[in-house]
Amino acid sequence: MARHAGRPGTDLRLDRRRLLGLGLAAGAAPLLGACGGASTTGSDEEGAITFLSTQFTPVEERQRFEQILRDRVKGGAVAYNTVEPNVFSSTITSQVGAGRVQVSLAGGLHGDFAPHADKFENLDDLAGKLADRRIPTDLADLGKLSGGATTYLPWMQASYVLAVNKRALQWLPSGADVQNLTYDQLLTWVGDARRANGNKPVLGLPCGPKGLYHRFFQGYLLPSFTGGQMTTFRSPAAVLAWQYMVELWAQTAPASTNYDNMQEPLQRGEVLIAWDHVARLVNAPADKPDDWIMAPAPRGPQGLGYLLVVAGLAIPKGAPDADRARQVIETLTTPDVQLEVLRRNAFFPVVEAALPTDLPPAVALEAEAVRRQQDAQGALLALPPVGLGAKDGEVSQIFKNCFKEICLDRRPVQQVLDRQAQQLNAILDEVKVPCWRPDPVVAGQTCRVQ
Which UniProt keywords apply (predicted)? Predict the structure, then answer.
């Protein structure tokens, strides 16, 4: 059994069943020079190496990470440039293709690197040198994209969990454990709570224009009910999942369609229970952490589906300062720096690291929930879509369309899934990429909805 987060000496390394995605996927992440792409001149300091990244795009997150770079990286300045994934893709592609590379270090999600494995250096030697970091094997293996060679080294990770105000526990069904819920128990809980709360819903979901609710369907609901994400998209089990979602939505705060992140409505007391990315929940318990619980997502008929969002570090082929880039990777994967990123930006370590006593209480709550989620019996790891490039947004929109048509417009579930599956297959046939977990991953075989 895992030791509880928040206690000194707790091991934050996430092993085989503790792979945390840091969404981050997350979630959640143009150089108008000779090669096109994004500006790679993010520092006025002479001799700074360029670090292009899809991570920490919010201004405050970026500034906090830049301070870590200034404080921790020795031997010269690092120009940290944040871009959207499509700009990351075009920049790496154009620079490497033209043989005029300005980027020395690249940071992105697994899906940012997957389509471009041949454009990055083989880092097997650096992976061997950093073996003492004790990065879990399954997590390290995700970075081996090109013929089994290490394309990227894991950098950080995050996930999505439930935030619960303890006021809601009074309505928890008899015999239910908030740390080990089923989807049926969650539905009963929020339904009973609504009726006992003057018909006011206590559950909220991030279904606003910038909310990450599509990740709930991709990484939690569908894997938990169907065992897959794409291949099972219109299966009988997927129909049951969406029928469940209709019932859950009936017990959810209607204002959820305006919520881009759940920490603010939780802080305001508009809802008492919410699911979201850890970085979008962390402020909810900040003022009164004793009033809050963070818990794993529920489990369904196929297990406890959860989304792994893992970010990595890579060096483009032809990088102008590859040696210094390697030094930066070494620095960013030390336990001290990993914990500093956790402390400041709530992204979790990928290396073995003892939990410090001065960790913000809200982050400690999330760490425990993440650990429980990944340690759970029947935990089913899911990845955000991989290798879709510019089509990623279109695929996300298909899941959003399913929600709108099924839950808001109340259209027949199977008809909606069949129609959206046709659009999904059209995209998949165009990009011709293999499936990703939890679907079977077969190299050279195009992913399709069955």
Answer: Cell membrane, Lipoprotein, Membrane, Palmitate, Signal
